[in-house]
Design goal:
The chain has one domain (2-87). Strands 1-5-4-3-2 form a 5-stranded mixed sheet. Helices cover 22% and strands 49% of the residues. The radius of gyration is 13 Å and the shape is globular. The chain starts with a strand and ends in a 10-residue tail after the last strand. By secondary structure, it is an alpha+beta fold.
Length: 93
């Protein structure tokens, strides 16, 4: 599936600590999450093991909200959460 990353998504990604490569990875290999307004969502948890804003975090979870038109996924936004996740929803690499 082709992926079109909206400029708004890239702006938010940079602010929140992720980038184009992880956005594409989440859409291709992440697990489904709920999304509103007929949109789709996927998430994936990555090892982080570093500081962000002077706080150490083991992992970060990247969530991408997107729409699907035929064979094109168009991103709407991206969220990044920092912490530690376990179990099925962690989907850690």
């Amino acid at each position: 599936m082709d992926i079109q990353i909206d400029p708004h998504t890239l702006e938010r990604a940079e602010e929140r600590g992720t980038g184009e490569e992880e956005i594409r990875d989440v859409i291709n290999d992440g697990f489904s999450i709920p999304a509103k307004y007929g949109r789709l969502g996927k998430a994936k948890t990555y090892e982080f093991k570093q500081k962000r804003h002077n706080i150490y975090y083991e992992q970060k979870r990247v969530e991408v909200i997107y729409i699907l038109t035929e064979e094109l996924a168009v991103t709407v936004t991206v969220y990044v959460f920092y912490g530690e996740w376990e179990g099925e929803d962690a989907d850690s690499i």
